[in-house]
């Protein structure tokens, strides 16, 4: 069984949001086409409490995109984004919600960030997604969403490490690429692990053939 993971297609990560991915909203038509083709679709949302540890405003004397150590974990500092129950935390209005089987909230703890859909940034606190998917017999996951070089990257690596055959759909994701070169570096790291890359058309064809 296959599953589609739609990572963080939220208002704050799209143009006009607090932490926009350049042209991030342009992937949504492909995401919707993919979601309609899968039997199991999971969407994730950053769902941060006010004053979250990842916000630069929570650390006086720091600036956005600084990197600090918090409880022994390297933490990049971001603008205030995806605060629980705000418009910015909502899924983008163009995303077709009728295809979603589950919406998973991550980054809900005040003192721990979460890039991956599978584990918090301490690398051990599970979100429950691995067991949910394996309990349904999923063996292969496809990833799309935002941002390619942050949350999609970490989710893909963890999916691979959890034993899923893992594919990132390149034209259904978009990168921050900050600092410059991050997007290419993370693509190389994914490939070195054996994570696959594909396109929307290729995935739709393969899913249709499998059926």
TrEMBL record:
Residues 3-178 form the Isochorismatase-like domain. Pfam families: Isochorismatase. Gene3D superfamilies: Isochorismatase-like (3.40.50.850). SUPFAM superfamilies: Isochorismatase-like hydrolases. Its EC number is 3.5.1.19. The keyword Transport does not apply. InterPro entries: Isochorismatase-like_dom, Isochorismatase-like_sf, Isochorismatase_Nicotinamidase. Signal peptide: none annotated. Belongs to the isochorismatase family. It comes from Spirochaeta africana (strain ATCC 700263 / DSM 8902 / Z-7692). It comes from the Bacteria. GO terms for molecular function: metal ion binding; nicotinamidase activity. The keyword Coiled coil does not apply. It is an enzyme of class 3 (hydrolase). Keywords: Hydrolase, Metal-binding, Pyridine nucleotide biosynthesis. This is nicotinamidase. Pathway: Cofactor biosynthesis; nicotinate biosynthesis; nicotinate from nicotinamide: step 1/1. One of its GO terms (biological process) is pyridine nucleotide biosynthetic process.
């Amino acid at each position: 069984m296959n599953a589609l993971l739609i990572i963080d297609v939220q208002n704050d990560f799209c143009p006009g949001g607090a932490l926009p991915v350049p042209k991030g909203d342009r992937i949504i038509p492909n995401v919707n086409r993919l979601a309609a083709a899968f039997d199991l679709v999971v969407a994730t949302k950053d769902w941060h409490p006010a004053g979250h540890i990842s916000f630069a405003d929570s650390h006086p004397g720091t600036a956005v995109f600084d990197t600090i150590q918090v409880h022994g974990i390297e933490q990049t500092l971001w603008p205030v984004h995806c605060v629980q129950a705000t418009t910015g935390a909502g899924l983008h209005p163009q995303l077709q919600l009728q295809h979603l089987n589950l919406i998973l909230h991550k980054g809900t703890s005040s003192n721990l960030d979460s890039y991956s859909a599978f584990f918090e940034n301490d690398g051990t606190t599970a979100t429950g997604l691995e067991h949910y998917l394996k309990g349904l017999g999923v063996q292969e996951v496809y990833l799309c969403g935002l941002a390619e070089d942050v949350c999609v990257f970490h989710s893909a690596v963890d999916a691979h490490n959890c034993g899923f055959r893992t594919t990132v759909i390149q034209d259904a994701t978009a990168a921050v690429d900050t600092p410059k070169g991050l997007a290419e570096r993370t693509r190389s790291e994914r490939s070195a692990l054996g994570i696959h890359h594909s396109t929307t058309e290729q995935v739709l064809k393969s899913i249709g053939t499998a059926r």
